[in-house]
Amino acid sequence: MTTPTKEALFEYVLRMGDNSLVLGHRLSEWCGHGPELEEDIALTNIALDLIGQARLLLAYAGEIEGKDRSEDDLAYLRDGMDYKNLLIVEQPNQDYSYTIVRQFLYDAFNFELYSRLLESKDQHLASIAAKALKETSYHRRHSAQWIVRLGDGTQMSHEKVQQALDELWMYTGEMFDMDEVDEGMLEAGIGVDLEAIRHHWDEHVNAVLEEATLERPQDAWMMSGGKAGKHSEHLGYILADLQYLQRAYPGAAW
Amino acid sequence: MTQHGWPLFEVFIRSKSGLSHKHAGSLHAADAEMALLNARDIYTRRKEGVSIWVVESKAITASDPHDKDSLFEPADDKIYRHPTFYSIPDEVKNI
Q: Any chain A CB within 8 A of the CB of B90?
C-alpha cells in the first residue's frame, strides 16, 4: 500500500468530475427538444444528476489541489487540453438512438465504477460514490430499457440503434485503459481496477443487447486520449457554450 | 394516443407508507415499464412518493356524469350511514 501524490489524486477525481460535467452538459442540450415531453423530462433529470455529481467531484478536486480553485473555477476556466473526460461523453447527441446508446454504454461503466468506489480508502470519494450510485442505478435502468425497446422495436429503430452502436463502439475501450494515475490509485486502495470491472460491464451490455436483438460490434481499433487531454473537436464547442458567460464577463454572478 | 401511437397511462402515487395510492396525473409512454420510469421523473421529483402504480387509461371504466342523480343522490338522505356520531381521538390520523 502506497500513499499517492496529491497530483495523482487530483487527476483521478478531476477525470470523474469532467466525465459527469461534459455528459451532463450534452444531455442538457436536449432540454426542450426531447422526442416526447416525458423523455425530455427524463433526460434533463439525468443531466441534473450528472451535473450534481460533477459539482461534488470538482469541489473535492479543488480541495485536494489546494490552490484555492472552486468547482466553478475548474468548470468554467479550464481550456480543452486541461479537461480529462473520456471521449465517449463528448460525442454529439445526433439523434435519440445515438444519445441513448452513448448513455447506455457509459451508464453501464459508471455503475460498475461507483459500485467499486464504495470501498475506496478515500472516505470522501466513497461517500460521493454512495450518493451517485443510487442515481446511476436509475440511469442504467432507463437507458437499458430504451435499448431494448429501440433494438427490438420497428425495423427503422433497430437499424438506427445498431448503427449508433457500431459508431460509438470505438469509444468504449478507453473506459478500461489503466494509465499511471489509475495504477497508482489502485495500488493505494483508492481507485478501481478497470480491467476487473470490464467483465461485469460486458455481462450487462451483452445481456441487454441480446434482449434487444442487437449485434455486439467486434472489438477493433479503439479511440483514446481523453484522459490525457487529447480531445475530439466536439469538446471545444461544448466549452464555448458552457464557458461563454464566465469568459466574457469574468466573475459574473446572480 | 399521440401521433406516435404511445398509449396513455394514469399514474397513482403513495405519498408515504400507510396511506393509499392517489391519482397524480397521466402521461404517455411506450409501455408500462417505461411509464413507471417516466412517472418517477415527472411525479416524484420533489419527494412526493414511496410507491408508484401505473395503469393504462383505457383499462379504466368511469361512471357517466349524467348518472349522478341515480348513482349518488339516494345516499344524501341516509345520514345514519355516516359515522359522524363518534368522536375521534386527536391521535388518530388519516381517517
A: no
CA distance A24 to A79: 18
As averages over each run of 10 residues, the pLDDT of chain A (254 residues) reads: 85 98 97 92 96 98 97 96 98 96 98 98 97 97 97 97 98 97 96 96 98 96 96 96 95 85
C-beta separation of A64 from A9 below 8 A: yes
Residue B37 sits at the chain A interface (C-beta within 8 Å): yes
Q: Rounded distance, CA A50 to CA A52, Å? A: 5
Contact call for residues B34 and B56 (beta carbons, < 8 A): no
Phi, then psi, of B92 in degrees rounded to 5: -85, 120
State the Cα–Cα distance between residues B24 and A149, nearest whole angstrom: 26
Q: Which residues pair with A10 in a beta bridge?
A: none
Spatial CB neighbours of A231, under 8 Å, sequence gap ≥ 6: A80, A81, A83, A85, A87, A90, A225
Q: Which of B3, B38, B47 should we substitute to test contact with A (largest number of A Cβ atoms within 10 Å)? A: B38
The DSSP line for A59-119 is HHHHHHHTS---HHHHHHS--GGG----HHHHS---SHHHHHHHHHHHHHHHHHHHHHHTT
Q: Is the Cβ of B27 closer than 8 Å to some Cβ of chain A? A: yes
DSSP structure string for A177-217: ---HHHHHHHHTTSS--HHHHHHHHHHHHHHHHHHTTPPPP
Delineate the domains of chain A, giving CATH numbers in brackets. Answer: 6-248 (1.20.1260.10)
pTM of the model: 0.89
Q: What are the phi and psi torsion angles at A95 (to 5°)?
A: -130, -175
ipTM confidence: 0.76
